[in-house]
Amino acid sequence: MPCLNQTAQTGNSPMSDFSDQRAELANRIGTLAELVSPDILQPADLFFDLAGEDIGRRLMLTNGPDGTTYCLRPDFTLPIAAQYLAGDAVGLSKNYGYLGPVFRQRDYGPFEFDQAGLEFLAPKDSDKTFSEVMHFAIEASALYGETAPRLHLGAVDLFETLLAKIDLPDVWRPRVRDRFGHDAAMGRLLDRLAVPEQFDGANDLPSDDAELTKKVAAEMDAAGLSPYSGRQAEEIVARYREKQMLAQAAVSPKTVRILREFLSIAGPASEQAFRVAGLAKKVGIDLDEPLEKLMTRLTELKATAPAQAQSMLHVGQQVVFSVQGLADQTFNGQINRVNPVADMMSRTLTFYARVDNPNNVLRAGLFAEGVYNNQSFFHNYTATVLTAPAFEPLSESKTLFQENFRAHNYLAVGLKNIFQITKNMQFRVEGYLFQPHQNILQNANKEAYYGKVWDEGHIIYSSSLVYKTPLGPIALNANYYEQFEDHWSFMFHFGYILFKKKSLE
């Protein structure tokens, strides 16, 4: 059953220091879904069987009078899904939201903390739902001051397609599938597949399950074991037969290597998609359909418009645009979010549009940006250039004042390639063309005026070697800026370059 989930967690519970944000978060959840609150006391078996070992070992357990094991609710997803499956709405599209305490043993932080999220069950339009969930996650993070959150995407359909295509015995497929997203458990399973356990079954046991069940029940009774205090004879027989089947279903070393390589792919989502495509081509597996679906979801247009146009921009509005280099084609999109605050310096408003990408023409790694601005000249050239929109594709370029890469209206295109040398080392090559509609020039009186239309473009090149460490990246960069005072710049740094907001923001 299709299900999309995004969870936002806070480190303290309750959110007493963020009462206003909590109220706003509950309001936003309520506009997207039905707010629900499953019982705090949940049957522990639900989580032991389905949530994986990572959650299982963190449960806070208690026993009922009848011996049933319960746990304090560690998560909302499973109780909501179980409630949905037990009701009359199975197969119908339902949107559920939640905001409340969960309880989980952790290595750091309180054991009780608030969790907020959305569960879209059997959505009619999975792409639209994906977009809604992503934007909810971004907006929820922004409520608590996190303006650049890292979002983890789970492409379960892509992994399921891989499992269906590789040479993997059917008895192993659900076991591998259930451990997707649980790195430690998946690692142990792959180690087991690489070096299969030896199974020494007794030859004198009945081959018929009914006879074997009677034999096990008799031996349990002779040993004084109650069938109600532990596993019953039927469960023991089922587990025994399962171990027999697993031992007989050997997995080839090639399949284990493919799974390990797929699961080792890390980095930005668009980069991962290209690496998965490369792996699929190398091993001869067709993953085009789920990859195209993923790339479509990741394709989003970021653009700006004059602040005066705010009243004309709205979610759902259709947009049409073209990309330099594909001049004979136009692309359609639909606005899915608009920044509510304009940039005070450039007097522009940023909006984002979900893009239709037929035949996957637009690919991750391609870059296109366009800016339209109706800002007029200031009294002098310097003030005019300072307030003009700037093209800053590199982290270093945000630290430089480059007059040649500022204009009231411009188009910019580029290409970024990332080559994965090892799991933690990358080599990146980038190139960008900045084409102003009209360059801002300076006359003898230090006043600004426009140059010729589409007269002169400027180029930026960059290459970098990046090594990821647990404390942050170590990088060596070489950057080239055309028509800048110093064309080349070299930088070696450890960590990230952080930027504060501009004084007028």
Q: How would you describe this protein?
A:
- With 505 residues, the chain is α+β, with helices and mostly antiparallel strands.
- The chain has 14 helices and 19 strands.
- It has helices at residues 19-32, 44-50, 53-56, 77-86, 126-143, 156-165, 173-178, 183-194, 209-222, 233-248, 253-264, 269-283, 288-298, 381-386; strands at 3-9, 34-35, 41-43, 61-63, 69-72, 94-103, 112-121, 300-306, 318-321, 331-338, 348-355, 366-371, 410-420, 425-436, 438-442, 448-453, 458-469, 472-481, 488-494.
- A hairpin with a 6-residue loop joins strand 18 and strand 19 (488-494).
- The longest helix has 18 residues, at 126-143.
- The two termini are 44 Å apart.
- Residues 1-16 have low confidence and may be disordered.
Concise account of the structure shown:
With 505 residues, the chain is α+β, with helices and mostly antiparallel strands. The chain has 14 helices and 19 strands.
Features:
505 residues; alpha+beta; 6-stranded antiparallel sheet; 14 helices; disordered N terminus
- SSE class: alpha+beta
Cα-based radius of gyration, to the nearest Å: 29 Å
The overall pLDDT average reads 78
How are the strands ordered across the major sheet? 12-13-14-17-18-19
Uncertain spans: 1-16
Work out the strand percent: 25-35%
Specify the biggest β-sheet: 6 strands, antiparallel
Total helices: the number is: 14
N/C terminus separation: 44 Å
Helix share bin: 25-40%
Oligomeric assembly:
single chain
Count all strands and give the number: 19
What would you call the shape?
elongated
